Amino acid sequence: MLSNYKVYGLKPLLRSVFKSDDWNALKPVDVLFVDHDGHRSHRFNDKQYAPLIDSLQESYLAQGKRCLTIAEPFSQIVGERAFGHVVDFNGSFARAAIRRVVMNPFAADEKLFGTRYIRDVWLRILSRCLPKEVVAIQPSQALCSACRELGIDVSDFQHGVINNNHPWYSTSSRRDYDVDGLPTAFLCWESESAGVIKTWAEQKGIVVRVIGNPWTRRFNNPDPSDVLVREATADCAWLRSLPPRNRILVTLGWGWRDLVVEGMPNYLSFPTPLLNIIRDTAGTATWYIRPHPVQMHGEERTDLLRYLHDSVGQVPNVFCTEVASVPLPALLQSTDLHLTVGSTVTSEAAVFGIPTGLVVPDPRPTEWLQHYYESERAAGIAEFVPNSEDQIRRYIRRKLPDLFGT
Which of 59, 63, 41 has the alpha carbon at shortest distance from 50? Predict the structure, then answer.
């Protein structure tokens, strides 16, 4: 848990050590959500909104259920800054994590590594809220174990790619995993992802359900009474005013700061061979460079935005911060081609019929994205593109023949 400083920085962690938490904010609820700042990529009614978790929460609220969100350590978007009733217990979690580190050399081995003392905080929270269900994105072992002890259902809600090569969802990593540290259910977007989890989860008594992607569904099948979608669509009118062709979306990922891969020139997951292509197509293309939400809330933000500003900030029709908070479904509706080093947007783009170039090392190691986006690649909607200027340029030319002129 202390490693979360890599996302939020050291200051929130250090401040949390001395923070007094508001335990009186905990009331009995029907559904308890757990989420972090990185997912709060949309702004609605002057509050930060988590597209997946909060879309699901709104469906529960419409059913008259009482809901509460616990901010995952060490999130800072809480209280009035966030949609819904969001509270944090950063102080309790920080002190529990430090205590665990200090006491580990003198304590007996814990059943589930990384849960000592942190699990106690979750037990205290859950005992006050008494939810019938907990929904989180990749819930921790400590949370799952506490829920199971109290007989509370805890679901892992899909937020990205799921395949049999994923360290969180693969058969090899979870088959022999202690069930006490696993959720009681997985909520998946589609049957392919559910099928991967079913290979090992069902034999452990874990339920796997397909519930769809509630965020994408809201935009693909808009309800006239959905104020968020209506306002977001109106706010995106500027996208629809751009030239309706040669619109290229580049989606980034976080955690690449110290990752060095031969044949993979990049800066914080931005393929640097794209720079000359962007400059060369200043008058014929529109470029959307979309940082990962965690990048926009974490320590990578300043360096990434400065790099993009210095590199392509003066190039016409290049949009970065402008599209960082645009709802992804709305952005995809104004996109012709997608490039990424591995973002889950690959699957979401396929739903809109948008081709994806998966930019990979040149040459690509056999295991690189080996089992990722297999259905999209089999259908030809996604393909590997070596990370060199020449190869990327060739790929774009095939997909957008008139981009470079004659």
Answer: 41
